[in-house]
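EI: anyone free to look at a 141-residue chain?
SC: sure, send it
EI:
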Amino acid sequence: MKAAAAQTTRSEGETATLARSLAVDLKAGAVLLLSGNLGAGKTAFVRGLAEGLGVDPSEVSSPTFTLVHEYRGGRLTLYHVDLYRLDRAATDDLGLEELGVADGILAIEWPDRLTHSLDGARHVSIEIIDDTTRSISIDGS
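SC: here you go
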């Protein structure tokens, strides 16, 4: 895997646009691991993914309390997972590998909670520069 040069976005809209352009090339079974501090824009990024897949981005919200949100209606199903409230040990039996393998894209927030790696996953790192500016790096081909 190669690391892409970091891209700078200056608003939630620009972050979503970057994700929307990434979504165009994603195939069923793709896994994205989204890292960044609270408020970095991980959910804004997922909204852009949704829009790029043909899903209404207004349906996307942080799945903090429900763990997984499933968004259908686009060219692929988007599975949005937030592991923030889980301990590392609690992630073992989630079955995340089964989500998205056949028909969709799996986007996981807080992947540092995972106790194992997911083969072929692409890492998306979102760094807060200031109130509106973000530096986003996407690893992968």
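EI: The beta strands are 7-9, 31-35, 68-71, 77-82, 104-109, 122-128, 134-138.
SC: 👍
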